[in-house]
Amino acid sequence: MNQNDRKWVLLAFGLLLFFVAHIALFRGFIVDDAFITFRYVQQWIHGHGLVYNIGERVEGYSNFLWILLLSPFAHFGVELTLAAKGLGALFGLLTLYMTWRAAQQVEGPRVAPLLLAASGPFAAWTMGGLETLLFTFLLFLSGYTFLEEEAKGRGYLSGFLFGLLALSRPEGLLFALVAFGFRIWRLYNVKSCPLRHDLLRLLAIGTVVLPYFFWRWVYYGYPLPNT
Fold first, then answer.
1. What angle (nearest 5°) sits at the alpha carbon of residue 142, between those of residues 38 and 14?
2. I need a labelling partner for 59 at 20 to 30 A (CA). Which of 15, 40, 162, 188 fits?
3. Please, which pLDDT band fits residue 46 given cuts at 50, 70 and 90?
4. Residues contacting 118, CB < 8 A, separation 6+
């Protein structure tokens, strides 16, 4: 490892320690809405279905993917507040890593990761118990992957990631529409028809979103998110 590599390793380690110390300041913070999600998780793992009250099929959550991620922890008896904070910290670190990667591709001072790690709201919501950091990470990852695919002229993984984004919060689908709209605009400018990877992107997001959409419709009785 040369001197330049050692410098970047030390910087990354220092950034990691700074972020961990920052979120530790908010370790007692949790949003009350998180307990709605916890209730759905507990009802589900006890065999009552995805309901708040037994026998009442009402969709009182907007974070299906977050419920899926928390359920194994609840099944094995892990305290859900602890599990939610741990997952929040994990996705916070992953978002910080993606910010670091993106910063390496721009000219000038690469301060974006430091600014993010120093952000009070980012640190607080990391410990908030909700799906905020899951959504943040998936939004960054799907957008970053989409732009990489555009630069290479191939790839469709972003479609799958946008699908997961839509499962983490319903408005995730809006970001997918923005990305696809941008792609259509580019195709229009060069007078080109959609390519194979464009169709595969649509297939990928549909494979994730459509089964969940129809399940929701059947299970709760209405097509649009209740929340």
1. 80
2. 162
3. very high
4. 18, 22
Q: Is 30 exposed, middle or buried (0-12, 13-18, 19+ CB in 10 A)?
A: middle
Going from the C-alpha of 155 to that of each of 6, 136, 149, the distances in angstroms are 34, 22, 5
CB atoms closer than 10 angstroms to residue 107 = 5
Q: Where are the alpha helices (DSSP H) in the chain?
A: 3-24, 34-45, 64-75, 80-103, 112-117, 120-126, 132-152, 157-168, 172-189, 196-220
pTM to 2 decimal places: 0.92
Sign for the pseudo-dihedral over CA of 92, 32, 67, 200: negative
**Segment 77-112, tens digit of pLDDT:** 999 999 999 999 999 999 999 999 898 887 766 788
Q: Is the pLDDT of residue 222 over 90?
A: no
pLDDT of residue 5: 59
The two three-digit tokens of residue 92, written as one number? 């916070």
